[in-house]
Amino acid sequence: MEHLLMKIVTYDTALSFSSSDGASFSGNSYLRYYINALKEQQDIQFTFATNQSSGLLYWQGNMVTSTTHYIYVTVNSGRVEL
């Protein structure tokens, strides 16, 4: 499995790391990664743990070129939704 270079972004700081390192968030941050070079179907796999009943867990898409091709995973009232 190829490891992606990722960046956690908070209000005023950014931290880069490899996808094999894992990540944790305080609630005011997000993970940004770029996959522009990928031209074929890719499988993603992740594990989440949260103490919040609602929120966005994962979003992937291109807001500049397409507003209709995206995927997201949320927690809504304690239930995971796609």
Produce a short descriptive summary.
By secondary structure, the chain is an all-beta fold. The chain is built from no helices and six strands.
Descriptive overview:
The chain has 82 residues and is mainly β. 0% of the residues lie in helices and 38% in strands. The relative contact order is 0.16.
Topology:
Layout: E1 5-9, E2 14-18, E3 30-33, E4 55-61, E5 70-76, E6 79-81
Antiparallel strand pairs: 1-2, 1-3, 4-5, 5-6
Structural class: mainly beta
* Biggest sheet descriptor: 3 strands, antiparallel
Overall geometry comes to: globular
Low-confidence stretches: 1-12
Mean pLDDT: 69
Kindly state the percentage of residues in helix.
Answer: under 10%
Calculate Rg over CA atoms. Answer: 14 Å
Fraction of residues in β-strands: 35-45%
Count the beta strands. Answer: 6
The number of domains is 2
**N to C succession of SSEs:** EEEEEE
Strand neighbour order, sheet with most strands: 2-1-3
